[in-house]
Specification:
Helix content: 25-40%
Shape: elongated
Oligomer: single chain
Number of strands: 26
Number of helices: 19
Bound molecules: iron/sulfur cluster
Distance between the termini: 21 Å
Structural class: alpha+beta
Length: about 500
């Protein structure tokens, strides 16, 4: 698959590395994990895995069962009897992944990772990116540790296995305290489901209840699909332990990873693009924030037709900018403009992973394979295209060309994020800085507009972006891919390699 697109049809968007899910206290653990992963398919489409824990009878020990493969959730868990005969158990964790370059063909990299060590069975699934994993990995390799994957997550398992602490929870705590960067983790042991989140809380992680059982997921859409009730988020720097006593008492055990205080810097891109609008992340509705992004953008960069008798229409780039576009239209009309929300771009939902590339002339305009225009809607209109982000710029340019072919009078481009200038080291995959159009144009917005071929272009400023996202006292957002200000230091080797790439 081309790096510029994924199987959901999103082209030239940053990739989220993963979704995690965990459940404890129900005989339907595997099937419910499947639903939880299905609802979070947008966070990773290249592979999926589930590990279940089947409690032993009498003297028999707990057994772990694993199933994982490449593909979409619907494909990976098709086998008949998989949930009843293979993935037996009353607790489970699951993971959807997006693979980074070079690791795509290695099945061993599909999470959760499960091993047996001196403390029993243990499995881990991780969303995020560990910023010091290369240093830890090198140290562990120097001491003789053999790695089976190229994933940063594997270091957590090795750190747990090598811990000299007596109690398993202390081994896990020690391992998690040693890693840095972004992690929302679920861990399955013989007796418990454990969830942990880094001190900055970059990635979302929520706890819910389903009858007597507990569920944990990256996004709350995973709870909605099974009618689980959202309880709260795992707090930055917190470890939550869910075991039999939790099911009996209805409460979880909460520990701190270590003495370091939490320093929340949630990923603001989760609101802009990654999370589903029907999710609640960082304690807030994504839909609400996304509408506000659109409203603030309309205020900062209004569009008024040069000729007042011309009709102004605003179109979304389906599906990720749908909600923000509504906010843009609403605010335009509230502030003296006269805009109409129109569906001017139609996205094909049926372009699959094995899509055969069309003939050369069509391939040159790749967006044509994903989008088509409704000509009657665009012809002779002043058109505003609202998108959530621009990465390389190639897709946006092709999209503009496509819209222009429908004969509009003017085409304006509005973006509900600031220009992406820098790489993400906390779990999102952007192309190298030199490939980012904003970086290539040295942050010159007018130049980006000329590259795209539009009459005008407007990005949301970092200030307006921050003003769109609610926050409690002491809470902040990471804006590093726009500002270059990284809230958590990056491993020197990673930093050098990726910034220079
Ligand atoms: S760098 Fe950007 S994508 Fe990465 S965590 Fe920060 S805001 Fe999110």
């Amino acid at each position: 698959m081309n790096h510029e697109e994924d199987s959901t049809g999103a082209i030239d968007k940053p990739r989220c590395h993963c979704a995690v899910f965990g459940i404890f206290g129900t005989p339907e653990a595997a099937q419910l994990t499947y639903y939880g992963l299905m609802a979070q398919q947008h966070r990773g489409q290249e592979g999926s895995g589930i590990v279940t824990a089947e409690p032993g009878n009498g003297a028999a020990k707990t057994r772990f069962h694993v199933h994982k493969d490449f593909g979409l959730v619907d494909d990976v868990y098709r086998r008949e009897g998989l949930f009843t005969e293979v993935l037996r158990g009353t607790a489970a964790i699951g993971h959807n992944r997006y693979s980074t370059a070079g690791a795509a063909d290695n099945k061993a990299n599909i999470q959760p990772f499960a091993v047996m060590y001196k403390g029993g069975n243990i499995a881990v699934a991780h969303n995020g990116n560990l910023t010091n994993f290369r240093t830890i990995r090198r140290e562990l390799q120097d001491q003789g540790t053999i790695f089976q994957t190229t994933s940063d997550t594997e270091v957590i398992l090795h750190l747990i296995a090598r811990s000299r602490r007596e109690r398993q929870i202390d081994q896990i705590r020690e391992a998690i305290a040693a890693v840095r960067g972004a992690f929302s983790i679920v861990i399955l042991t013989d007796t418990a489901l454990i969830a942990a989140r880094d001190h900055a809380g970059f990635r979302p992680l929520a706890i819910g209840k389903l009858g007597g059982a507990f569920v944990v997921a990256s996004e709350t859409v995973a709870f909605d699909i099974m009618d689980a009730e959202y309880v709260r988020d795992v707090a930055p720097g917190e470890i939550v332990v869910i075991d039999r006593s939790s099911v009996e008492s209805g409460t979880v055990t909460s520990l701190r990873i270590d003495e370091r205080p939490a320093s929340p810097h949630h990923c603001i891109f989760e609101y802009i693009y990654f999370s589903r609008p029907d999710s609640r992340i960082f304690g807030h509705s994504v839909d609400k924030v996304r509408r506000k992004l659109g409203k603030n953008l309309a205020r900062a960069h209004p569009v008024r037709p040069r000729d007042p008798s011309d009709k102004l229409i605003v179109i979304n780039v389906p599906d990720s900018s749908n909600t923000a576009t509504m906010g843009y239209v609403q605010e335009t009309n509230k502030t003296g403009g006269k805009a109409k929300l129109e569906i001017g771009l139609i996205r094909s939902h049926y372009i699959g992973r094995t899509f055969i590339q069309p003939r050369q002339e069509v391939r040159e305009n790749k967006v044509k394979t994903k989008f088509n225009t409704v000509r009657g809607v665009l012809k002779d209109r002043v058109v505003v295209i609202v998108d959530d982000s621009i990465v390389r710029g190639t897709t946006s340019r092709q999209l503009v060309q496509l819209v222009k072919q429908a004969g509009p009078k003017e085409v304006h481009f509005r973006v509900t994020s600031p220009p992406i200038m820098y790489p993400c080291h906390y779990g999102m995959d952007f192309p190298t800085p030199s490939e980012l159009v904003a970086n290539r144009c040295g942050g010159d917005i007018e130049k980006i507009g000329s590259e795209l071929g539009v009459d005008s272009i407007g990005y949301l400023s970092i200030e307006d972006l921050l003003a769109s996202a609610p926050r409690e006292e002491g809470e902040n957002y990471c804006t590093a891919c726009f500002s270059g200000r990284y809230p958590v230091p990056i491993d020197a080797t990673v930093s050098k390699e990726e910034h220079e790439a």
